Amino acid sequence: QQQVKQSPQSLIVQKGGISIINCAYENTAFDYFPWYQQFPGKGPALLIAIRPDVSEKKEGRFTISFNKSAKQFSLHIMDSQPGDSATYFCAAHRGAGSYQLTFGKGTKLSVIP
Amino acid sequence: DAGITQSPRYKITETGRQVTLMCHQTWSHSYMFWYRQDLGHGLRLIYYSAAADITDKGEVPDGYVVSRSKTENFPLTLESATRSQTSVYFCASSALAGREGETQYFGPGTRLLVL
User: Fold this and answer.
1) What is the mean pLDDT of residues B91-107?
2) What are A71-105's pLDDT values in tens digits?
3) Burial (CB count within 10 angstroms: exposed 0-12, middle 13-18, buried 19+), residue A60
4) Which runs of E-coded beta strand occur in B27-69?
5) Of B94, B101, B106, the CB nearest to A45
6) Confidence of residue B86 (pLDDT cuts 50, 70, 90)
7) Which of A32, A43, A101 sits opposite B107 (nearest CB)?
8) In angstroms, what separates the C-alpha of B93 from chain A's closest C-alpha?
9) B87 CB within 8 Å of a chain A CB
10) In chain B, which residues have their Cβ closer than 8 Å to the Cβ of A101?
11) Tens-digit pLDDT profile for residues A13-37
């Protein structure tokens, strides 16, 4: 049973536009929500992360919005650039005593000039 | 500053053969993980290890065996490879404790083709 649902599967955005990727979860025990970025031929790398006690976290052009009551969180990429073209995975940490992450299925983002 | 390395990077094998994928990390992280990545499935956890000699199953452990005799190494063995095990395999590690503990650092991956 997939515990983190990610959408869309693929996304095409024009350079300078806003990319939005959404994730929803079911398990209220999740306590940490990272986003990983993966370029072709490389391993995923942590991009930005948020804890459920805040509603938004911003790092440069990347922002996570978190809605605890709706059990949803999203990644916004402002002023999207061709170099942002990659696959993005949302994830959720299973809580105290666990070091496991549950990943969404990924979103392939293509930023076109 | 090697970080986390995987070998081989590419492997072609035949059905029924035993294959071992290697993972080595230089950070002394306690936790290590093996994932497989398949189109349409994202990253799925195969096995993980909390410390040397402590391992546990993840979401898709069938057909795989792991061991961890040393903190820095976490090999993954396919005892009798099947075509369904054709995939990209990623090893990852994370620190012992603290807020930074949840960050997993991934290796470059091993692309495995089973004919």
Assistant:
1) 78
2) 999 999 999 999 999 999 999 987 766 778 889 99
3) exposed
4) 31-38, 42-51, 54-57, 64-66
5) B106
6) very high
7) A43
8) 10
9) no
10) 45, 102, 104
11) 999 999 999 999 998 888 889 999 9
